[in-house]
Amino acid sequence: MAFTASLPQDSAPGSAGAVRVCRLPGVYAPQADTRLLLAQLRREELWPGMRSLDLCTGTGVLAVIAALRGARATAVDISRAAIAASRLNALLHGCRIRALRGDLDAPVARERFDLVTVNPPYVPSDDTEAPARGARRSWDAGPDGRLLLDRVCARAPGLLTPSGVLLLVQSSLSGVTHTLDALAGGGLRARVVRRRTEPFGPVMSARADWFATHGLIPRGVRTEELVVIRACRP
């Protein structure tokens, strides 16, 4: 069974327009973080034949948008259902993407890309290791929310072409300054290009007391700031 959702329409010339997304059970549904990253993607310069990579792709919507704008798009996810959803959404929109199953960048470790987009799991949890299966694998990321973020920061410089761009979305609860410093340590110039304050959804609300106990939010707060970080070589 597939669930569908609409992402906002883009009115820019040559844009992909409204995007109807199919989501298979167990695949992360496009939410506020997806929309924020998508808004920045639509501001980036894409050209026919450029190579794009979307890690932790979920439904594949970012790869689909890149493909519709002429990129040779690759989507990677560890979830079989996500890879199936990515291929389904590419078919739905009449474009071609290369969808590969694997752990983060493992399937493309020897390749370089002009654009890399990432919406990784970043929600802090009391588990020290990432879930091996189930829906929580899409958001749980260890006590500081950085199990995937730190790996992305370490690998990003090696994935980019000399003029390549990384777009990464995360929560303020998972260390924005840490991400900026880690990317800078890898030789990239990184800055926050988008911010949006969002109310907690069900997962975050259920953990609010735990977040407060561990000093991630003041007690009583029920919002987070989502940010998009853009990184490139100086």
UniProtKB/TrEMBL annotation:
Top class in the EC scheme: transferase
Record EC number: 2.1.1.-
Gene Ontology cellular-component annotations: eRF1 methyltransferase complex
Gene3D superfamilies in UniProt: Vaccinia Virus protein VP39
Keyword Methyltransferase carried by entry: yes
Keyword Phosphoprotein: no
A biological process from GO: methylation
GO MF terms held by the record: protein methyltransferase activity; S-adenosylmethionine-dependent methyltransferase activity
A Pfam family: MTS
UniProt keywords, alphabetically: Methyltransferase, S-adenosyl-L-methionine, Transferase
UniProt domain Methyltransferase small: residue ranges: 19-127
Database matches in InterPro entries: Euk-Arch_PrmC-MTase (IPR052190), PrmC-related (IPR004557), SAM-dependent_MTases_sf (IPR029063), Small_mtfrase_dom (IPR007848)
Domain of life the protein comes from: Bacteria
Matches recorded under PANTHER family: METHYLTRANSFERASE N6AMT1
Protein name: HemK2/MTQ2 family protein methyltransferase
Taxonomic path: Bacteria, Bacillati, Actinomycetota, Actinomycetes, Kitasatosporales
